[in-house]
Amino acid sequence: MNPRVLKVMTQGMIGYLDPDFTKIMDEVTDLIRRVYQTKDGRTMALSGTGMAGMEAGFASLVEPGDTVIMCIYGYFCERMVEIGTRVQANVVPLRADWGAPFPAELLEQELKKHKNVKMVSAVHAETSTGVRQPLQDLSRLTREHDALFMVDAVTSLGGVEVAFDDWGMDYAYAATQKCLGCPPGLSPVSLSERALHVAQNRKSKPFTWYLDLGMLANYWGWGEKRVYHHTAPVSMILALREGLRLVLEEGLENRFKRHVRNAAALAAGLRALGLKLVVPDEYRLSQITLVWIPDGIDDAEVRGRLLMSHGIEIGAGLGDFAGRVWRIGLMGESSKQENIITLLSALEKILPEVGYEVAVGSGVKAAEDALASS
Ligand SMILES: *Cc1c(COP(=O)(O)O)cnc(C)c1O
């Protein structure tokens, strides 16, 4: 984590009702707006992790019986089904293959079968598959049917472009600990004007008081006057403000390029070791890279040795991909050259020990060459 982020968390506390803190909240909404690239988005930071953002969206924008079409192509998409069911929505899951982008035609066909669709949901960066989902077609179709478009931007915000306005989103949520380089604990969200209208003009109150987006919007200054809702996690908000400032000081474009460049170097290194990537270059996320575990190689053994002997944590496969893939994150602060080189040299040591031969030095060299030529 960036030392500036850690530092603000240890500074003296400011009261959550202090007028100075209100100014900080305003500043945070503004910074979130810039990172979501939105002019009109009603932005705020929910107290809770990315899942709070997901739950708040379904709980606040959907009423019992409303139809929600869910585009599903990974583990986090599947969670939406669970939450949608709990808020008693009429959930229509559209399942497509893991490891590839969701085909917009599926949504197009399904929308034709329904008269009233309240919302369509999708995940932008599916952390379980490493796929970057193109959103424009899904958004266009959703708007043609006058439904709300909800997007999970948990792993995308701060790592790859998220254009809230241009891509026609109505609600998007993220998390501080993925590509924003902050500790976990807040979910920066954005609502379109019509999504906020829906949240504040429901027939029934949402089952949750704490994650009621309509009330929270008033707390974050989007109503006529600010209405106290709950005690803000002050130090988390200070950390987020600093993390967002760092994102914008680097510049969104520069930051995305850094992620792309480092991911390309990692990919070159992994391929030089003979490993196969799960996602084709075109749709591969730069903040998370999935590789197939070679036949006969012990998944947990390799991850264990990386952690115990080299202090490197890589992710295990989730859901359908459990035991079949490794997931290598290069997110935010951690997307840097030294991490790529350290990981590749560790793999060059460990893989032969567990029975997978590699040309020692080839992975590191390929990554270094890629970095030098980019
Ligand atoms: C990590 C993740 C979540 C869950 O976020 P938490 O901060 O762990 O609650 C949701 N969606 C995606 C795509 C994620 O990667």
Set out the fold topology.
Layout: H1 3-10, H2 19-35, E1 42-47, H3 50-61, E2 67-72, H4 75-86, E3 90-95, H5 104-112, E4 119-123, E5 125-126, E6 131-132, H6 136-144, E7 148-152, E8 171-173, E9 186-191, H7 193-200, H8 213-219, H9 234-250, H10 252-272, E10 288-292, H11 299-310, E11 315-316, E12 325-329, H12 337-353, H13 362-373
Parallel strand pairs: 2-3, 2-4, 4-7, 7-8
Antiparallel strand pairs: 1-9, 5-6, 8-9, 10-12, 11-12
Helix pairs in contact: 1-9, 2-9, 5-6, 7-8, 9-10, 10-12, 10-13, 11-12, 12-13
The protein binds pyridoxal-5'-phosphate.
Pyridoxal-5'-phosphate binds at residues 49-51, 76, 123, 125, 127, 152, 154-155, 175, 184.
Low-confidence stretches: none
Percentage of residues assigned to helices? 40-55%
What is the CATH topology assignment of the largest domain?
Answer: Aspartate Aminotransferase, domain 2
Supply the CATH architecture of the largest domain.
Answer: 3-Layer(aba) Sandwich
Rounded mean pLDDT is: 96
Rg, nearest Å: 21 Å
CATH superfamily of the largest domain: Type I PLP-dependent aspartate aminotransferase-like (Major domain)
Number of domains: 2
Largest sheet at a glance? Answer: 7 strands, mixed
Spatial strand order of the main sheet: 1-9-8-7-4-2-3
The secondary-structure class comes to alpha/beta
Distance between the termini: 25 Å
* Secondary structure tally, helices: 13
